[in-house]
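User: We ran a pulldown and think these components assemble together. Before we commit to crystallization trials, I'd like a predicted model of the whole complex to look at. Sequences follow.
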Amino acid sequence: MKTAVFWGCRILTSQYAYEMSVREAFPRLNIELVDLRETNCCGDPVKSVNDLAANYLAARVLALANVAGLENLLIPCNRCHFVITEAKNIVEKNGRLGQKIAGLLMEEGLECNPNIKVWHVIDFLHDLVGLDNIKKFLQKPLKGLKLATHVGCQIIRYSDLGRVDYAENPLKLDELVNALGAETVDYAEKLDCCGANLMHSHSDSAFSLAGTKINALQNLGVDGLVVSCPDCGLMFDFKQKEAETRVGAKLNLPVVYYSQLLGLALDVEQEKLGLHLNQSPVDQLLPKVSP
Amino acid sequence: MPKIGVYVCHCGLNIAGVVDIERVVEYAKGLPDVAVTRNYTYMCSDLGQRMIQEDIKSHKLDGVVIATCSPAMHEETFRRAVAEAGLNPYLLEIVNLREHVSWVHSDMPDEATEKAKDLVRMGVVRARLLEPLEKSKVHAERRVLVVGGGIAGIQASLDLADAGLEVILVERAPSIGGRMAQLDKTFPTLDCSACILTPKMVDVVKHPKIELLTNSEVTEVKGFVGNYEVSITKKPRYVDEKKCVGCELCTKVCPVEVADEFNEGLSQTRAISIYSPHAVPKIAAVNPKHCLRLKYDKDVCGKCLEACEARAINFKQQPETIQVKVGAIILAVGSQVFDASKMPEFGYGHHKNVVSNIEFERILNASGPTGGQILCPSNGKAPETVVLVQCVGSRDKRFHEHCCRVGCMATLKHAILIREKLGKDVNIYVCFNDMRAFGKGYDEFYRRARDMDINLVAGLPSDIRSKADGSLYFDVYDKGTNKLLEIRPDLVVLANGLVPNSDMAKIGELFRVSRSADGFLLEVHPKLRPLECAVAGVFLAGACQGPKDIPDAVAQASGAAAKVIDLLATGEVELEPLKAVVDKDLCSGCRLCEPVCPFVAIEMKTEIVDGAERLWAEVVEAMCQGCGLCVSACPTNAIKMRHYTNEQVIAQVQAACATSKVGGDG
Amino acid sequence: MAKANPESLVKVLARLSSRELVNCFQCIKCTSGCTALKLLELKPHEIMKLVNLGFVDELAASDIIWTCVTCLKCVQRCPQKASPYHVIMALRNLAVEREAKVPEGYLKAVSQILETGLAEGAQKVVTKKMETFDRKSLKLPKVTPPREGFQPLLVKIMEEKSY
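Assistant: Here's a predicted model for the assembly, 1120 residues in total across the polymer chains.
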C-alpha cells in the first residue's frame, strides 16, 4: 500500500522521534510512504490570524498531495489533520470561500483532488491496515505492559466534521496498543487536553494542564502514556520536567509515540525509533518490554 | 353565460400589505363572465360571508371565486356559506393570495400583484368549468378502536363508552396503565399516581361497553372512516385468563430471573409474572424469550405448572387473531424516554449511580425495587448529595430538538420528594438551562421547591466523571454567582426527555399517519385541529402527538373522544365527493390503475359480454382519497377526478400561460 | 452604560460559515467543561452572549480571546450546534486586523511561515546523555521549502481584507 505523507512543521523541526518511528515501522507493515515535496505549514497558527490564509494553506497541502497523484494522505499530527479536514470540507462545499481558495490555488497551477482520503496514523492503522494485519507482522509482542492512551483533541472533535474516532469514547488507539500485546486502562481524565496550543501565549497554563494530567496518570499506576501527536508529545514528553513546578509534584512518567511502540513490537532497534530522544524516562518502560 | 362573482380578501394586512387589492379587483372586473367583484378586509367574517350570500341570491351567480388565504384555512367555511345561499358548495374556487403570493413575495409588491391577477384569472377560468357535486353518506360503525392503554387511552375509552359507543382498547403490554402506572407522585399536587389511576383502570375492565385486549397488538388496518377493518393479534400469555386468580405462586417458584421491565431493569422478576404491582388485568404472563420450556421447546422445568392451583397455565396457547370493524380509531400509543447512553459524557450505563428520571420514579415508588427508599444503586446507602441534570437528550440538536415539556416539573417533583424522604441530611442540586413551570399551579410548585433549600444551579455540566473508586464528580458553572461549582454527588438523576417511540415509523405506516419533523405523530393543525390526523377517522391523544403531562394528556383524550362521538353520532359519515370516477365505456380493463392506487381503492369488476369476460375498473369511493394517481396512469383517459378534471386543470394551465409577460428573475 | 456596536457584529458574522454558530441559548455546558476556565477564566458562554448582543469591540481588544486552548469540547457538546471556538477565532482575526493585543507567538509563526514555509525553526534535541541531534545527524531527509511563488502569494492573501 502506498500513501502520501504530510509531516507538518513540529515533527520536522523538533519531534524527530515521531518521524523516525513512523519511517521505520510503516514499511515493515508493507506501507510505502511518499513524502510530499516543497510543503508549507498547514496553517494551524494562522487560523487565529487570518482564516482565509489558514484555509488556503491547508488546501494547498491537499493540492500538493494531488501533485503526488496519490489517493491516500497520511497526516501524523492531530492539528494538521483538523485544519486540513476543515479546509477539505470548505473546498468540497464550493461556496464563496471554497471558490476563492480554489482560485488562489489556481494562481500557482494547483488544484485539489475531491477523491483524496485524509488519514491520521490512528485510523490509517486501525481501519485501513487493520488490527489483524498488524498482529501478523509482530515479532516481539509487548506483554506485561500496562499503558494509558492520550488520543488528543483535534482528531476526535468535532464529530460533525467526520473525525478519526468517537469523541466521547475513543478506543482505536487503545485497540492498537492492545494489538501489540499491551494492556490499556480507562481513566477519568482521558479526554482532557494537553494544553499545547497555549504555548503561543500562556505557557504557564499549558504546563499546568499537561502536568495535571501526567500527575493523575501517575496515580493510576500505569507503566507509561502513549500519544500520537507531536504537540501532545511536546507537552507530555519534552516539557514534563518543566511542568513539575506548576503542579507541585514529581513527574516521572514515560511517554512514547504509538509508532515507537509499534516499532518495538516489530523488533526495530530502539535508536532507530528515536527512543533516545524522548525526554521522559522511557528507560523505565523499556526493560518491561519482554524479550 | 355563466355568472361568476369574484371576492378579493385583504386578510387584514396579510394580503393587502403586499398586493394592491384595488388593481386586482379592477382586473377581475374585466374578465369574461365576471358579474360582480367585491373586496373586503376579512372575507371569512360574518359580514364578508353575507356579502357573498347576498350576491349569490341577487345576481343569481353560477360560480364564486374567493381570492383569500389557503383553502386549508376556510374552504369549508366558505362552502357552507355558499350552500346556505342556495348554490352548490362545489361551485366555489379558492384562490390563494396569501400563502402563494403575499407571504412568499413580500419583497416584490408589484410582481406579487401581477401574480395575484394571474391567479385570479386562472381561478375564474376554473370556476366556469366546475360541476355541482354532492357529498355521499356511508354507514359508520358505532365502535371505536383505542390503541394504547395509558392514561390517554384509558380516559378516551371511558368517555367513549359512557357516551354509548363500543370500545376496543388494545394494549401491547400485559397490563394497562402505561407510563403513569410507573410514576410515584404526580406534579403539581403530589397525588399518588397509582391512587388516581387504578380506579380508572378498574372502571375500564368493568365497563360493559369496553372490550379490553391486553398483550395484544394491531397488525393490519384496512378500510376507511366509519368502516375500518382492523386485525388484532392477541399474543399468548400461556395463561388462561379465565382461570388465573393472580395469586403469584407461579412467580415464586419460577427459577428464571428476568430484568423487570416495569421497574426499568432495576430489579429482577421471573419468566412468569404479573406485569406490575397494580396490574389490570391481574393475570400472569409467561415471557417466551426467557421461559425455559418455550425458549428450548422442550418439556423441561414446569415448576409453575405444579404450583398453580387454578391450573391456569397452558404452554400450548397460540396467538389469536381478532378481526373487528370500527368506525374510528384513536391512537394513544404514548412516547418513550430518551436513552441517555447515547450521551456517554454523562456516564449513564457506565456508572451505576447515574440513573434516569423514570428509573428514579421506580426508586421513589413504594412498590418499586427499593420499597420506596432512596438508595444509591452501587452500595444501597442513602445519598448525601443528589444532583438532577436537566435537558438530557432534549433541546439538543445532536439528538432531539424539542423541549420535552415535563422534564422541569418532574425534576422539581423529584427534588421535593427527596427532601421529604431524606430530610435535612441531603444536599440537592438541580442543574438547569431554563426552568419551565408553565401550567396551572406549576410556578407555585417551583416556589415550593425553592422553599425547601433545593440548590438551583443555572448551568448544565459538560460531563460527569468517576474516580477509580467509583465516586462521581463534576464541575458546573453557575450563571447567577459566576462560580464554578465542584460537585461530588452520590446519586445523579438525569432528566431524560420524552421522545417518539422507536417504532413510530411502523405505526405511521399501519395507520397511515404521518409524523412531524420531531418524529411525533402529525396532527392536521397544531393549534386549531390538534387531535385529528389527515386520514379521516383517525385521532390522536396523549404523548404520541407530542410530549405532554397528565393534565394535557387527559384533556386531549377527552377531546379526541368528543370528536369521535360527534363523528359517529348519527351512525353515518359524510364523504367528500372529490374522488376518482371510472368511465366504464372508456375503460379497457388494462389494470394499470389498480397497483398504482396507494389506498387500495380500485376494484376490478367482471361481466360476461357476448360470451366473453369483460374486465373494468371501479373506484371504491369510500376508500378513494382523491390523490389522482390513477387518473394520470390511465392510458385511455377513462378515469376522471371529480372537481379536478383534465379540462379544468388544462384550462387553468392555459390561462396561466395567457399572459405575455415572461421574464424577470425567473 | 454599555453600548453595543452592530457594525462590528456584522464583521464577526461575515467570518462565520453559518449563523447557527452563534445561536446560543446559554445552557452553560461549554463553560462548565472549558479547559481554559479554571486557569485562565475563559467563559465561552459569556463570549457568545457578548457577541450576540453586539459587544464585539471590547472582546476584540481583550486578552481573554487568546486564552482558548482549541480543545473543541465546546463545539462537540453544544446542544445548539453553536461554536464558541469558531466565534473566538473570528474575534481573533478581527483583533489582528485592528492590531489589538495579539500574542507574539502567533505573529512569530506567521513570519516564520513567510520565510521558510514552516511555522517553526529547526531545533536541536539534547538527550539525557547530553548528546545533541538534528535532522542531519539523525539521517532524516532534507526539508524542501515551498517554491518561489508561494511567499508573495501568501503575503497578498494576508493583506487582503476579504470581508
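The mean pLDDT of chain A is 95. That may be worth checking against your pulldown data before setting up trials.

User: Thanks, that helps.
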